[in-house]
Design brief:
five-stranded mixed beta sheet; 29% strand; four-stranded antiparallel beta sheet; globular; alpha+beta; Ribosomal Protein S5, domain 2
Length: 239
């Protein structure tokens, strides 16, 4: 099958990472994956959640949201007392993935909050948030250490974390789905892993369809190749 933008099945959309996009943040990056654009910021605070006080270890959490005009139809802002279940689920996913890349004991009793704000959505916003969120996180740690807010000899960022989407469309395994492909996919997968290839989280579901173990292996292999390329881009964004 021919993809809408002419890409090969194992080809990523054009990816661009612009570090220090928000200069008031400890660490930030604008990540662009095709027409999907997410601003990721990371804030280091000398505190931890109440349930972690006195443990001598830190915490990393994430918040994800979409601007109302990020999609063609305006998205309603959550009002007082109204939770957005999709945003909450993705926030937890991003937080889990980023914590997998950390040595929380080396962070000390400090907390890093990574905010992922989608300004334009064309598929893969959660995986772009993880990939860009890690860059913002690593840059925030570097800045906090330079400012003396974190121990200079600590190594709280233990490993790179990267994520990508893939799926089965018309029976074909494709990497990095845009919105039109994602909407038509029989099988949808999001993969978060380390730059070394160890899996952190795999979200896979058949959309009114089933898939074989061979399909699963094919999708995981596609994701691994995409994550390797994204990890190299992360390194360049870190300088």
């Amino acid at each position: 099958m021919k993809r809408p933008d002419g890409r090969k099945p194992n080809e990523l959309r054009p990816v661009k990472m612009t570090p220090d996009f928000i200069r008031t943040a400890d660490g930030s990056v604008l990540i662009e994956v095709g027409r999907t654009r997410v601003i990721c910021t990371a804030t280091v605070e000398n505190k931890v959640p109440p349930w972690m006080k006195g443990r001598g270890t830190g915490w990393v959490t994430a918040e994800y949201g979409m601007l109302p005009a990020a999609t063609k139809e305006r998205t309603q802002r959550p009002g007082p007392g109204r939770a957005n279940s999709r945003a909450s689920e993705i926030s937890r996913l991003v937080g889990r993935a980023l914590r997998a890349g950390m040595d929380l004991a080396a962070l000390g009793e400090n907390m890093i909050t990574v905010d992922c704000d989608v300004i334009e959505a064309d598929g893969g916003t959660r995986t772009a948030s993880i990939t860009g969120g890690w860059v913002a996180l690593a840059r925030a740690v570097r800045a906090a250490q330079a400012a003396g807010r974190l121990a200079a000899d600590a190594r709280p960022v233990a490993r790179q974390v990267v994520a990508v989407s893939c799926g089965m469309v018309d029976g074909k395994a494709l990497l990095d789905l845009d919105y039109s492909e994602d909407a038509a996919a029989e099988v949808d997968m999001n993969v978060a892993e380390t730059a070394g290839g160890r899996l952190i989280e795999v979200q896979t579901s058949g959309e009114e369809a089933t898939f074989s173990r061979d399909d699963l292996a094919r999708l995981l292999a596609l994701a691994a190749g995409g994550c390797r390329r994204l990890a190299e881009m992360q390194k360049r964004a870190l300088g």
